[in-house]
Amino acid sequence: FIAANNGGHNHHGARVGQWIEGGVWQNAADDTVHVSGLVMSILELVSQTELWLVSSGTDLVARTQRGNLALSVGDELQFFDRRSGIVISQRRISRIDPSIVNENHGTHIWLDGDVGDVVPGHIGGRFRFNASVTQVYNFNLTSNQFVFRNNQVRNGRRVGVLYKGDRALIENNHFEGLGGGAVEC
User: Fold this and answer.
1) How far apart are CA 133 and CA 54, in angstroms?
2) What is the pLDDT of residue 153?
3) Cα separation of 35 and 52, whole Å?
4) Residue 175 and residue 158: Cα distance in Å, rounded?
5) Can you give 34-101 as a three-state secondary structure string?
6) What is the mean pLDDT of residues 116-139?
7) pLDDT tens digits, 60-119
8) What is the pTM (predicted TM-score) of this model?
9) Rounded CA gap, 116 and 48, in Å?
10) DSSP 64
11) How confident is the model at residue 48, as a pLDDT?
12) DSSP string, 107-153
């Protein structure tokens, strides 16, 4: 497998981690493998336990299936203040109304407790960014239990494996000629 002019493998918002083994990766123009969760924004804060979420980025699923953030009752959401680097709260989804998607393609959810001092708004897309808006991550959709082993990664512009999830196994790989680190978590 040879990647050029873009990243090699990008996985965002998967419930189950990818298993990548025995591959050869050459000349990726961005991260060779980038695994993370979908960043969401609070479109509207109805109350401390009821809100509307929307995708914050240019994720393909969010663009093509408006309002479908693949959320499930019981999923654990983390509310993060990027400016301070502090987790505001972690709450579980207690209810989702999938039949209602508002004109801004938001998803209506309820939480198991108060969300805390969050800032609603849209974080932005590819070329604009509002760091004051609270970022929301779904811990259940960060490609948990990702495996990357017995691979060769050569001459990539940035990072070999950029992993922003929970429970990864990265072993017995060979990295050379990268512009960034071999593995960043």
Assistant:
1) 12
2) 94
3) 25
4) 12
5) EEECCCEEEEEEEECCEEEEEECCCCHHHHHCCCCCCCCCCCEEEEEECCCCEEEEEEEEEEEEEEEE
6) 82
7) 454 445 456 888 999 999 999 988 999 999 999 999 986 665 556 688 999 999 999 999
8) 0.79
9) 7
10) H
11) 97
12) EEEEESS---S---S----SS---TTSPEEEEGGGS-TTEEEES-EE
**What sign for the dihedral angle of Cα 122, 16, 147, 153?**
negative
Q: Are 184 and 159 in contact (CB under 8 A)?
A: yes
Q: How far is residue 76 CA from its own chain's centroid?
A: 13
Pairing of strands 33-36, 24-26: unpaired
- Residue the block writes with tokens 């991260």: 31
Angstrom distance (rounded) from CA 106 to CA 108: 7
Supply 6's token pair.
């873009």
* Each residue's pLDDT tens digit, 5-48: 667 777 777 888 889 999 998 888 888 888 888 888 898 999 99
Residue 138 identity (one-letter amino acid) = N
